[in-house]
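Quick one: structure tokens for this chain, please?
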Amino acid sequence: MENSKIKHFPIASFSSVMGIAGVSIALNKFYHMQWFPEWPYLVTMAISFIAFVLISLMYSRKAYLFYQDINDDFRHRIRINFFSTITISFLLLSISIYGIWPFVALPLWWIGFIGHTYIMLHTIKFWIQHNFEIKTFNPAWFIPVVGNILVPVIGVDFIPRELAWVYFSIGFIFWIVLLTIFMNRVIFHDQMPKKFMPTFFILLAPPAIGFIAYVRIIQSLDSFAFFMLFIAYFFAALLLMLYKSFKGLEFFVSWWAFLFPLASTTIASVVAFQLTGAAIYKYIAWFFMLSALVTFAIVSYKTLVAIKNEELCVEEE
């Protein structure tokens, strides 16, 4: 790839790894429920690792050739939130491979855990030390929060349960705070730019992952777990009602934001079915799984077309 394209290689590309790894984990759950064969899980897991390596190599080259641009991204009021996608990718890749190669999952998880702790604290410090206008807020701000809630999913097997509660608690409280700001932004201020519309799906991720992490920590199902699961379903219903807002959108890298939340809600629904045996959760899981797979196919195709037409690495506004 020529240097002019590398210069504009987007940090948001790592969101594709999050999406593919999320689908891989969901397919693994379906395999263990004997609803799918194993090969779709193995294929998507391999694709997620390949995508992560390729994107990491390209972004490393950008860091080598255009260090100042990386530094500018790290100080950018919107792009700073996407640096968490790197560490979240480590966490998700570790989860996707944990069941078959735990000796590989462990170092990946620790890299993601330590890296995310730093980036999360740096991002919150950045929020506090800079003045923001409400129009700069968008759902990408939830990404560092999602990373905190992801930590206990398999981290509860590696760290003291109290520390798992720490990360869950931080993620949960910032989810509530940012959700309040988000509702103020979308109701009382100008419409969100079209390129950020796909990031609305990020609203599904914190409560869905929160449900999974909470159940992993307490090893049972209670009213608070249902609270988070039903909040995820509420946002899914709301997004379905807003379908006209997503029609005719021009392709952006942010389209990958559709995928990970759908996969997260799929996994949460499978877990709910496992713990309750209620058939409704099985049907909901199938709905989200099929939605995620269709979305995966569409976004992958759009991305390949954008790469072919050299539309992916362009200067952003």
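Residues 220 and 275 are 8 Å apart (CA to CA).
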